[in-house]
Design goal:
The structure is a homodimer.
Chain A (H helix, E strand, L loop, with lengths): L14 H20 L3 E2 L5 E3 H5 L12 E3 L5 E4 L4 H15 L3 E10 L11 E10 L4 H17 L5 E7 H10 L6 H9 L1 H17 L2 H11 L7 H11 L5 H15 L6 E3 L10 E10 L9 E6 L13 E7 H10 L3 H4 L6 E3 L6 H13 L4 E3 L7 H10 L4 E6 L2 E6 L5 E3 H12 L2
Parallel strand pairs in A: 1-5, 7-8, 12-13, 12-14
Antiparallel strand pairs in A: 2-4, 3-4, 5-6, 6-11, 7-9, 9-10, 10-11, 14-15, 15-16
Chain lengths: 429, 429
């Protein structure tokens, strides 16, 4: 016998997880396509050089990398952004720009598994490339809002800021040359707290005063409205500027759309990654902030610079589907609660197979998920246990008088079309 | 610059391929769930021993296998059957039996790429495990029929046979000990032709007479009805038997369901693989038989014997999605023809952004896929080219008099609610 174990950091997805994951994916896809986003897919395996750039670097150890049978240095993708950049360089002319794509698929990282973190997980990315203006920024933010609304999450807040504004501010302090270290430190605010950030900023900037000023900047959103924050940051960063005008335009469009209430201007949002140049954002669920951001991203100046000369500016977001599912589970979302395998279980008892099959065909054609019990000679106790495992609410049996339907939760028995109507009603939810 | 190339045998999926693939997948998933099938997923990477069994063997070279950073011997799955067997051994008690699952996902094989064959491709498997009777066989065949009907394929035929009947026949010839070689040879009938099969069978059985008898058996379906074929094979295999009774029951249930016309009894179907023990089947599209079987499978006695002692009989099917897509393309299926990125393109011209965004919000909420053009200062020629790339049929512009809609195919201009009604109508197809 071989042990049927999966690798460390990997896991099977059972129907109780996979049914809601499929449902959530469909809801998101419907939102994306309603905004004219189109799906693409890329290979799971790529040349390592394509994924890591020439030389590779630190990321190296965290990816699944090997030599294939042809001796090629290959690796499994560790995110969906790098393959998208390579895709745009390869297919720029075919797909045309502006281009809106979404990509929902697995990625792999070899990092040490921790609670809630796996070596194989689902990413959901959506980006608009080929435009750099307030309307494209707003489109992405609007998709995010529509996605969370469609998932039935009632309380969520998008924390948004602008990298350019932060850069201008650092220029006023003559700290532009240390911006990467400063941004990375600020990005840890939620994790390590204000005191520790202040301490590290003092070390980086060489002065407690600078640290205080940066802290004042990144906490300027607290207790202030979006527009108040914007004006405060404008004055801290040397007056009205291109980035501040962009934020104003975005806020105006969000207001037109009637969704500006879900967006707060939070200058502590920087995103650690170097490539963001414009707006940056994270998404927090008001009821479980501890889970961290469930949807993050921003605007970048040039997506595909590794592979092509032409500039491809863009703006995009990434939803961590596994983290989102965990969050939905904690908030008791009905998307996760109702995991029935079928709406109805039909028992094809001996001599009644023809009736059972023809009833099943009719109900299935109507969209009622109809399971047929396949060990019809089993004891009733076993059949009940089977229905319970799959959370199947109704059972249909046949006698010489026709069919009857039992509600397995109440043990109530019904007959005739009224019974089918009730199953149909419930199956719609 | 790094060359944005993909690995040999791999390919990107552009929206023109990915949109219909998603549509086809949804149609299939809706059929599967209407039959009470539930989705599962398994890791892409597994212990090599789990995938290949102890020792490995011939398959070895055709898989992507390596040592991970922890020194484990791992491999990427090459089908969805072996991971399902491992899954059942690991989760038998949790999921309960009978268990109906489907799994639509990628698999990888390192074989040399040929026309239409890739190293990364999509499989779509559906199985019922934990039951061995005519009703479970019929359920699988019925799902296959419903799937092809739902895809709008008008002419398809399921070729079905029974391994047990063939075995009984070989026993009458005292050739049971050579059955694996014989089955594999017969399986090549379509590829190498009757004469070559006869020659090889003569070699295997040591007699031209045996070869002739086997040829007579496997061609017994030609020009005969299902029941005539069954009776002929019964007499060739020593009379009424367990397998022939099973075929009779299945045929009777298919007749009750009104779908028996799509099934022919074709004893030349054997499936090369050792593990089939009961019914076996392949599916051919009447208009392009040359593409080969697009959905194949059969009944097996014991799925998970490598990993557990308990027997898990089952019956299952596999659709090669890439081959099916190619076939649908060749038959001019509307599933592939209509690949529009959106139903409508809105132009948010300067000063009219608010109107454009609020119109988009309304139309998207109604399910109309609405793209917003993001370089609104572009020349009309460029906007038209953009709409053409995405096969977007309508364009909406704004003036001080309100909006107007242009049909980009006829250049006809419309205004008011009637215009929106027309877009809505067309978007439903």
């Amino acid at each position: 016998m071989i042990d049927p174990a999966v690798l460390k950091g990997f896991r099977d997805s059972l129907p109780g997880d996979e049914i809601p994951k499929k449902r959530i994916t469909r809801i998101l896809e419907d939102v994306f396509t309603s905004y004219g986003f189109v799906p693409i897919d890329t290979p799971v395996l790529e040349y390592t050089e394509v994924l890591l750039g020439k030389g590779g670097g630190e990321t190296d150890k965290q990816i699944f990398r090997f030599h294939d049978n042809g001796g090629r240095d290959v690796a499994m993708r560790f995110d969906l952004t790098v393959p998208f950049a390579r895709f745009m360089a390869a297919h720029h002319d075919e797909v045309g720009v502006p281009f809106r794509r979404y990509h929902i698929s697995k990625v792999w990282r070899g990092e040490n598994p921790q609670k809630g973190r796996y070596r194989e997980f689902m990413q959901c990315d959506f980006d608009i490339v080929g435009a750099d203006n307030a309307i494209s920024d707003t489109e992405i933010l609007s998709v995010m809002h529509a996605s969370f609304a469609a998932l039935g999450i009632s309380r969520y807040t998008f924390h948004i800021s602008h990298r350019g504004l932060f850069s201008l501010f650092l220029e006023t302090l003559s700290l532009a040359d240390r911006s990467i270290d400063i941004l990375r430190t600020v990005d840890k605010l939620r994790k390590i707290g204000e005191d520790e950030v202040r301490k590290q900023l003092s070390d980086i900037t060489g002065s407690a005063e600078n640290a205080d000023r940066i802290i004042a900047f990144i906490t300027a959103g607290e207790g202030r409205s979006f527009m108040e924050t914007l004006e405060t940051l404008e004055s801290l960063s040397g007056g009205i500027s291109e980035p501040s005008r962009r934020m104003r335009e975005i806020h105006s469009l969000l207001t037109d759309l009637g969704i500006s209430g879900s967006f707060v201007f939070d200058p502590s949002i920087t995103r650690g990654l170097d490539y963001y140049t414009g707006i940056v954002y994270e998404t927090f669920l008001d009821d479980i902030p501890s889970i961290g951001s469930v949807c993050s991203g921003g605007r970048y100046n040039d997506l595909a610079s590794l592979y092509m000369k032409e500039k491809t500016p863009g703006v995009g977001s990434s939803i961590g589907l596994d983290r989102l599912m965990a969050a939905l589970g904690e908030t008791g979302s009905p998307l996760l609660a109702n995991q029935s395998y079928a709406d109805l279980l039909i028992i094809p008892s001996q001599g009644k197979e023809a009736e059972a099959f023809s009833a099943a065909a009719r109900l299935r054609a109507e969209g009622i998920r109809t399971d047929m019990y396949l060990n019809p000679d089993a004891k009733m106790k076993k059949i009940y246990a089977y229905a319970e495992t799959g959370h199947i609410p109704y059972m249909m049996t046949f006698s010489d008088d026709g069919f009857s339907v039992k509600d397995l939760r109440t043990r109530e028995t019904m007959t005739g079309e009224a019974a089918i109507e009730r199953i149909r009603e419930e199956s719609r939810h």
